[in-house]
Fold:
Amino acid sequence: MSMAGNLRKVTGLGRVGGLRKVARLARRRSRVDLSHPARSPLGSSVVNCVMYQDGVRVPGCTDLVDAVKMVRKRGEGFVWLGLHEPTDHEFAGIAELFDLHPLAVEDAVEAHQRPKLERYGETLFAVFKTVCYVEHEKLTATSEVVNTGEIMVFVGEDFVITVRHGRHGSLGPLREELEADPGQLAKGPAAVLHAIADHVVDDYLNVTDAVQADIDQVEADVFSESGERTDPGRIYQLKRELLELKRAVVPLARPVEDLSIRPIRVIDPEIQAYFRDVLDHLMRAKDQIAAFDELLNSILQAHLAQVTVAQNEDMRKITAWAAVIAVPTMVCGVYGMNFDHMPELHWRFGYPLVMGVMVLACGVLYRGFRRNGWL
Structure:
């Protein structure tokens, strides 16, 4: 019986009658690589379960419980169990098998956790926020730019349990990269934790590069000479999405720093040097996000200043035209009072004279406003 098929015993899925047929199907597909799909072909939360010895995947049909016993009996190797959005019922047997702390189990199942690093006895529990860039043809006030998920990692001396939440951040390609380097994988569960941290932080850098392209486009639109006004909603949307990215990146600095400098039993000192490299990349992403936030603030202030200037120009034009129109309005108002005794009221040239005076006065005002840039 395959290791994946026997996980029904550990997760409690064997008591669910509707999954028996699915389990039989999984046994017939023993060669399927379960690391790539978002959900396992078993229909459960199990994505993959592999035992490693000296950095090499151990082939063959082995029960999970037997694999753990074998690893602990030999005193070398480890088991890597991958899960995707498990339920309390599915995770209960696994938590009992590996003696996981209830608080850590609750965090792993519920998700929506802040990036952190905690130690429960001999087990290390780490939470990483995963991010991915959402492609879009044109940035709008409602465009989704950054999508987030989570990866929880339980690390012991002879096991690694990864719990993933979200539709992105598959660890299948990462597993293949590690298996292609047995020397690194032979360093134990800490090497897997480092690889996951490095993978997550590299995604941060990729997303920040993509977000920078959106910010550059908004900046170009704001300062374009075409005269078109940029929708401020696009700037606010970028700031909101940048805040989501900031929540994933900034809190992770302390856990990665602890992994790189603090003595931890399950982390080999040789692996800590690799975590220092991850910390350098993380700080780079953190600095980029801070710079983006300041740049967006400047772009928003510049946009608001442009709007204010445009409004002032409109008000000056309105005021200038109102002043020009006030002259004929005043003259017409005076001669529209219908008094019998008014100067030049019955003079033959009174009408053309008044019209000429109004045209001349309006022309002088128009020329003056035009010269001062009001019109």
Observations:
- The mean pLDDT is 80.
